[in-house]
Amino acid sequence: MSAAPLSGIRACVFDAYGTLFDPASATARCQVSLDGNDARLTALWRDKQLQYSWLRTIEGKHADFWQVTREALDFALEALGMGDPGLREHLMQLYLTLTPFPDAVDCLWRLRQMGLLTAILSNGTPEMLGSMVEASQLGQMFDALLSVEEAGIYKPYPSVYQLAVDRLGVPAQEIAFLSSNGWDAYGASSFGLRVVWCNRVGWPRERLPGAPDREIRTLAELPGMLGSA
To answer: Is the pLDDT of residue 227 over 60?
Structure first.
């Protein structure tokens, strides 16, 4: 995909988990021994977390992301034979204070300097998002923290992306949506947002409706794409 500038953008809306905040930082900071299963636990926990959100949407049985995250962790811990009774609660508390990716803070600061609106649009509950933003001291970087709980359904359902349009008062074609998750990037594109896919690990394109406008490998590339050198 071309790295040519995106014109006419007034707002940048970010996915939280995997895009601004690193889910692996929970297991990395865990003070309970994981017996070398850090990477396996992180991957299985994240996979089940997403699967459960999608399946609950299909079934019409919504539960908030805190419950989904806890149930996904329960599955992952049992699957890996990790039965420490204190581990579950320790990891859940760490999930409330995930660490931002190194490129996220500078990117957000530069966008604010450019006068762009910035927001998070995430599966996370308002409490989960508020906790992460507060812990990372990024509160001044956002005009809005948007949770799917306002729509009562998970991404990539179209009404979730509509939240950004409605709350920011900016047309979809003037919003750049940033996600490292391919399914999310393609979902937002199918809805009508301008999409920059932060493809951190170099995955191939998704075989889904929609097509991201741009593809980058790090958030550090974003401000220059919008006009800031």
So the answer is: yes
State which amino acid sits at residue 122: S
Question: Is 138 found in the same domain as 83?
Answer: no
Same domain, 147 and 197: yes
Query: What order of strands is seen across the sheet that includes strand 194-198?
Result: 144-147, 117-122, 11-14, 175-179, 194-198, 214-216
| CA separation for the pair 204, 206 (Å, rounded) | 7
pTM confidence score? 0.95
Contact present, 226 and 116 (Cβ < 8 Å): yes
Q: Residue 224 and residue 229: Cα distance in Å, rounded?
A: 5
CA distance 168 to 150: 14
Domains contained in the chain, number = 2
Is residue 2 assigned to a domain?
no
206 contacts 183 by C-beta, under 8 angstroms? yes
* Residues assigned a catalytic role: 15
- pLDDT tens per residue across span 199-210: 999 999 999 999
pLDDT at 40: 93
Residue 81: domain span:
24-95
Residue 1 pLDDT: 45
Indicate whether 86 and 116 sit together in one domain: no
Distance, in Å, from the CA atom of 212 to the CA atom of 223, rounded to the nearest integer, reads: 17
Answer yes or no: do 216 and 121 share one domain.
yes
- Are residues 114 and 76 part of one domain? no
